[in-house]
Predict the 3D structure of the following.
Amino acid sequence: MRRVVWILIAALIVLHHDFWWWTDGTLLGGAIPIGLAYHMGLSVAASLVWLLTVRFAWPQIAAIPAAESRPEKPVAHSTTPR
Amino acid sequence: MTALAVIATYLGLLLLLGGLSAAWSRGTSRDYMLASHTIGPVLLLMSLFGTTMTAFALVGSTGEAFKAGIGVYGLMASSSGIVHSLCFFLIGVKLWDLGRRHGYTTQIQYFRERLESNRIGWLLFPILVGLIVPYLLIGVLAAGATINGITQGAFAEWHWFAAAGYGVPPWLGSLVVCAVVLIYVFIGGMRGTAWANTLQTAVFMILGIVTFVVVVRRIGHRDTLWENIRAATALVARRHPEKLTREGMPQAVFAGYMLIPLSAGMFPHLFQHWLTARDARTFRLPVVVHPLFIMIVWAPCVMLGVWATSATVDGTPGGELLIPPDTHPNQVLALLVAKLSGELLSGLLTAGILAAIMSSLDSQFLCLGTMFTNDIVLHHWGRERFTERQIVWLARAFIVAIVALTYALSCFEPRRVFTLGIWCFSGFAGLVPLVLACLYWPRLTKPGAYASVLALAASWLALFRASDWAADPQYTFAGTLPVVTMCIVSTAALVLVSLLTRPPSGRTLQKFFPDRKSN
């Protein structure tokens, strides 16, 4: 499923370049230009793909034990390159 | 005057919110800069969205659609829906994890350890600040233009406002907005910023929809919303049919715009917001909902800009144009609102626009103070020299200095919001190969990172100069946007130099890639 999700993300990027609607002045319902409607649809599709991503391809992040979580970055008094 | 009163009330509300959030402060620098990692999914969603949606999203999108038509949505909105969430997912979650484990507050702290280089911070700091300042300028300029647009003619007796069309002069509007944001960031720190962002994001989304409905009703002169949308579009189809397609928009340029939203991966203020998350799962809601929120804000703005090209005072095709064709793009939205809504609504809608602007300014102000304090002062002189209270005051002092500088620049910088934004975003996008390689490519070396940053800086400067310092908004290089060249150059330098130089030490690899099998 993880692979399918990555294929879908790649598909979104490819489908973003919709050369086929470039000069098409069709108005959906006489109101919304087809080129705009398509890209709004792409926004909805992106949201759905991200939903699949968080469901099936979310990275495994181990919980950080309180003792291991560093409260502050200790800053060395250093002006020399390491 | 009613509009001004509404705006003043809204600004007062923000100050109140900043004051309230201060009551929750734990008094530590970590709380001031990262809200002690207590931000949950909804606040994170609203903060990230409010921060990425700037004047650029409302004022810039409307103005650019007025000039270039519906293609603006594909250029910036649908691409951002894909790429921003990708950045949150690939970069944000991973950096959050590293930040919590190793105690980072800024990007530079991470880069210094990952690249085993102290000096990388001295190189990156001026570049990041230099790129943030134009980004701040976008907000400051748009705030002044918006308030001026909405108040034109309101001060007919005030002769010293004559040059500003008898409205609040842009320099004064910008000054007031800077002061308000400065005060609530000053008082409330990151918690105040997150709270204010949430309120402001809700305000500009709701009022954006109200603006859309009110304006289209006045343009269409019909009974129902749908009939009005049809009527408004029909006017465009008669006068400017090219605005309803992407005629004249080069495909290579359109493709190049896909790289612009990558900039979110290197915004220092987004990095700081990521670190405020309570846990990794907190990112899930922003990743999924961000593209929908973008659509809700951008689609109406783009349509308003397109309709503004052909809308007439009486709604007839041959009537007098509502917005003159030579109107400055930054002022199109404000003029539409001023001409087509009543005083009260006009004030509310302007508050919505200002909300979008300020919800980015606050995070940027705060991150600059955080970077200066952590990456320069504490790194150079050592944390032990300062008390927690002094650290917070150092951050505040730098914020005031940067706001003063930005404000001074805004008084002399009349560039289009959209053009200015593109250059700033291009620079950040060109740095994304560096952060991706740091996170996912163990073979990245210190010289490779330096080469990438220097190549990016050189190509950015050369191309910015060639565009006559952004005076030419149509500037392209090799037939497409300069960002394409910048990304190619910085990636090529990174890969080539890394492969030719010694890999990072085993200790660093073990620290940042613990699951990697050693060869």
